Please model this.
Amino acid sequence: MADRPVVLVAGASRGLGLELARQFAERDWQVIATVRNLDGAPDLARLQTERPDRIAINRLDIADQSSVAAFKAEIGDRRLDVLYINAGIMGPRHHDPMRISDDEFQSLMLTNALAPVRFATTFLGNLREGTGVFVFMTSQLGSVARNEGGDYDLYRASKAALNTLTRSFVARLGARKLAVLSFHPGWVKTDMGGAKAPLDAETSVAGMIGIVEGARGTSGHRFLDYQGNVIPW
Ligand SMILES: NC(=O)c1ccc[n+]([C@@H]2O[C@H](COP(=O)([O-])OP(=O)(O)OC[C@H]3O[C@@H](n4cnc5c(N)ncnc54)[C@H](OP(=O)(O)O)[C@@H]3O)[C@@H](O)[C@H]2O)c1
Model:
């Protein structure tokens, strides 16, 4: 097998994660793409059939610690160049703090905030020191500074919590030379973004991958959109 850089895309069954797997493979990366349900990702399965030398598919539910442990056992000590944590959920569409159930809130915060940082911590030893890049898929809705209009209260809270946990994770990295990106992908046409979104996944992902490739060999933590514009915390 050629010595290609390796990217792990967590949550690649559809939407932005699927497009990340497709474009990284096209740019000659080795892709480990994860899905919750092996039968529930026909587009990724088709892609993997077309590029069996570039894409491997593994099962992973990022919010289930036993699933993360089983996946970590499969990956072992394999070197990773980029860990791209894309998995996320919107939660109830009403976004009303008075209507969300405790279980729904717990699931939203677990999936969007706690699980990504636990996952990054689990795989910290796999990231290639010096050039490794962690990517967290957050949202500009997670910017506390930009929250002047309200709305999307619960999803916002989950991504703001993700940003805070990510900053603590980065602080713990100390002097280790690793880059960390918190990305807003833009408002993108996917199952989550909906049909009215102005941006297609291809454009968003092409922008983000360019930034990831440029971040290799750097260190520090940045909150950026897919075009590289800085977003205030
Ligand atoms: N689209 C936008 O406009 C937009 C804007 C800002 C931020 N984002 C963020 O970008 C990321 C991708 O969004 P998207 O628009 O592509 O959404 P999407 O079409 O709804 O896809 C979400 C992906 O996350 C996976 N996922 C959800 N929960 C998971 C879990 N517990 N374990 C593993 N995988 C899980 C889904 O897998 P299943 O198929 O198994 O459900 C799916 O692959 C999310 O973090 C989202 O918050 C999106």
Observations:
- The beta strands are 6-10, 30-35, 55-59, 82-85, 133-137, 179-184, 220-225.
- Residues 6-225 form a domain with the Rossmann fold fold (CATH 3.40.50.720).
- The longest strand covers residues 30-35.
- The chain is about 40% helix and 15% strand.
